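In response to reviewer comment 3 from the previous cycle, which asked for concrete evidence that the modeling workflow produces usable outputs, we include below a single protein chain processed end to end. The sequence was submitted unchanged, and the resulting structure tokens are shown without manual editing.
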Amino acid sequence: FGSRGSSVEQFLAALAAASGLQGRTDRGQRAAMGKAGQARQVFKTFGKNKKSGKVKTEDKKKTAPKLKKDITPGSVLILLAGRFRGTRVVFLKQLESGLLLITGPYAVNGVPLRRVNQRFCIATSTKVDLKGADYGSVSDAYFARSASKKKTKKDES
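The workflow returned the following structure tokens.
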């Protein structure tokens, strides 16, 4: 493409040739828009009809984000947000949702089994032995709220 003005015309001609639209009737309308407007109009008109190779979000299978390299089962984390911010806790495992399963343990510092996002944790170099711990049955479903009926206000008049 040579000069700037001719490159837009060549681009439009190439795009029209590729899409088989040499016989379009709105050429006068495009000419009135100016060169940059013509290019925008071409993308607006023809960009919508092309199927992209992207997978729809509902078709994608959600995968848990990768753990930070310092976080391993048994490592001690420091929480940065929430009710227990500043508290050291023990990391147990990563759940399917990507959240981290942590505990205080409750008897030691009052932190129960909780799910936290790894963005709100700092890993320390301290490790704790988890040999006697059985946390395999804990999953995201463990933390789901029970489906109870909402209370409705009844008029007693």
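The first strand starts at residue 75 and ends at 79. We consider this sufficient to address the reviewer's concern, and the full set will be provided in the supplementary archive.
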